[in-house]
Amino acid sequence: MTSMxxxxxxxxxxLLLWYMGKNGLNNRGPERKVGLWIFYISGFFFISFxxxxxxxxxxxxxxxxxxxxAFDFATSDGFGSLGNSNQSLASHxxxxxxxxxxxxxxxxxxxxxxxxxYAFGDINCHNKHERSLEIxxxxxxxxxxxxxxxxxxxxxxxxxxxxxxxxxxxKDTCLSIIPDNWLEKIYRGNHRTLAWIGFGMLFCLPxxxxxxxxxxxxxxxxxxxxxxxxxxxxxxxxxxxxxxYSARPVKFATASQVVLxxxxxxxLQKELEEE
Length: 275
Fold this sequence. Notes:
This protein is an all-alpha fold. The protein has helices at residues 2-20, 29-55, 86-89, 112-124, 144-163, 170-175, 180-188, 192-216, 225-246, 269-274; strands spanning 92-93, 99-100, 134-135, 138-139. The chain starts with a helix and ends with a helix. The relative contact order is 0.14.
């Protein structure tokens, strides 16, 4: 009888941890939904970037180049048509010495689906043809770096849907995708902020190095390195966005209810003052 009681005593904490989850709550449905929403939306755009040029008339979208965060190809000569102006369509030389002539294009003349995808690319991307790929003889709606970013967003959203947990704060929710046994020393020493910043830098550093090296030197990134550096950035961005929506202190009765790696506990300043 004594042995049975000891066995139950030892197993009970493990069963509670399994039932409650590694953050102290028994339901991580909201985190899963947020991660999947990011996965589905980003995945939709990622796939659409390939479908839209495939179903557009062959060779109808070529050599376009505009600005980021602005409509340049909405119409031929009306609203958002700077990319189709005489100045934009004039021949110009690139840094490699090649001469190009931009072609006229208006996404309002495409079918609704393709038009929406190209409009999304128009407002979000510079659409530089030398930094974009072609499918079916058509320039893709966004540059290769954005292709990598959206793939990374989809992957990051899926990872968070599987591993992300609400742990009261945004940074602790971000760190929750890392195995707890890797974080025990970090939490015992309260180095969470440094770990969070370092974690974020791992995702951002490839893009930062590639972008600033191109800006400050003669180095020119290419359509192989751009998606490779955009991918990790997209993953980090997805995890951050998911954590911002998933970190909900209101789900916990008290701060000390949050289960953290290494047996660490949150204590609010107000609670400490009352003691």
